[in-house]
Write a structure and sequence with these properties.
alpha/beta, D-Amino Acid Oxidase, Chain A, domain 2, 8-stranded mixed beta sheet, 18 strands
Length: about 375
């Protein structure tokens, strides 16, 4: 395999995952992040990190569902390479609704059945009676008359993952394969110009190998990649020891689907509003009331939950709401537009980028429908 040097800009979920994948493949990498290691202005620490391709098929294109299906199978092997344990489960997704929303539930059920028929490798959705729901989630027994179960869908703990990835980066740094630069904002195009002029050549790089510059900044790339925009999301993180849920649960809601993602030690992530705005001000009263009242209507134990955090972040997306990889100049790549599906599709996007860097071929991207544009 040909070795490359890589300058990765942006240490969010995508940048960390790509850096680790490159290092595991034997490339030398310098990773630059404009903020400190806890990346407070990124979407990744806020997200629920659900890995739910069929559930997301209700609001996205089938090629994104294929990416999610691939990534769901890929995550375990990526997690095994990390030096710390990361919470990961595949116990499916439960969807419930109140009688007033039965019409919307029927529409959603028909849509999911149709999408599964188009992608038969996905497990089929299962209709549930009230007693079936009680078997899956005993704490919800006698609370809902009907539901849907989407088998084998999953989730992971986003913050444990980011921490484990940081530990993995430092392991590679101690071996001389990776250099990590926190609080080091970079303009990728200016960095690329330095590479082309020979002014940028980190000491740990291979002397005769080509050097790639890869922009993974998400919303931070908006100034240079003007088609990038942010979509506001609001998420509440609570501690609810009186609530027992063993899988992500979605409630059909008149304005938007509400999810409740149970993490370890009684922590739940509740979201997600979706607002066409780049406003990063604190959560609105309306959104907060809707999220918390919806959670309470699923399980009354949320009434005594303690609110740990109320977070607002921007999901980076492109005009078509689809991810894209662009190779705009030789050895210059930028990746963006993962939208609300960052954790669900990152392994696929990273594998496609890695394939291109190593071979300049796009077979995997073609299989799943990930757009890679190349300016020759």
């Amino acid at each position: 395999m040909n070795k490359s040097n890589c300058l990765v800009i942006g240490a969010g979920l995508l940048g960390r995952t790509l850096t680790l994948a490159l290092a595991h493949q034997g490339h030398r990498v310098s990773l630059f992040e404009a903020t400190q290691s806890d990346i407070p202005n990124a979407a990744a620490p806020v997200a629920a990190a659900m890995l739910a391709p069929l559930a997301e098929s209700a609001i996205t294109e089938l090629n994104v569902v294929r990416m999610g299906q691939y990534s769901l199978e890929r995550w375990p092997s990526l997690l095994q390479l990390l030096p710390q344990t990361v919470f990961f489960q595949r116990q499916g997704t439960l969807i419930v609704w109140h009688p007033a929303d039965a019409g919307e539930a029927q529409r959603l059920s028909s849509l999911l059945q149709r999408n599964q028929a188009l992608l038969p490798s996905l497990p089929a959705p299962q209709s549930l009676t009230g007693s079936d729901i009680g078997v899956l989630e005993p704490s919800l027994a006698n609370r809902f008359e009907r539901g849907l179960y989407l088998p084998q869908e999953g989730q992971l703990d986003n913050r444990e993952l980011l921490s484990a990835q940081e530990a993995g980066l430092y392991n590679f740094q101690s071996q001389g394969h990776v250099q990590v630069h926190w609080q080091s904002p970079q303009n990728p195009e200016a960095l690329y110009a330095q590479v082309c002029s020979g002014d940028m050549k980190p000491a740990h790089f291979w002397p005769d190998a080509p050097t790639w510059v890869i922009d993974c900044r998400g919303i931070g790339a908006k100034k240079e990649w003007t088609r990038v925009r942010g979509v506001r999301g609001e998420v509440v993180r609570v501690h609810a020891p009186e609530v027992s849920l063993s899988r992500p649960t979605r409630l059909i809601h008149p304005r938007y689907p509400i999810y409740i993602a149970p993490k370890e030690n009684g922590v739940f992530v509740i979201g997600a509003t979706e607002i066409e705005s780049e406003d990063l001000s604190p959560s609105s009263v309306r959104s907060t009331l809707e999220l918390l009242s919806a959670a309470y209507s699923v399980h009354p134990g949320f009434a005594e939950a303690r609110v740990l955090e109320m977070n607002t972040q921007l999901r980076p997306t492109l005009p078509d709401n689809l991810p894209a990889i662009e190779v705009t100049q030789p050895h210059f790549m930028r990746i963006n537009g993962l939208y609300r599906h960052g954790f669900m599709i990152t392994p696929l996007v990273v594998d496609c980028a890695l394939e291109w860097i190593q071979t300049q071929h796009t077979s995997l991207a073609q299989q799943v429908g990930l757009h890679i544009s190349v300016n020759s």
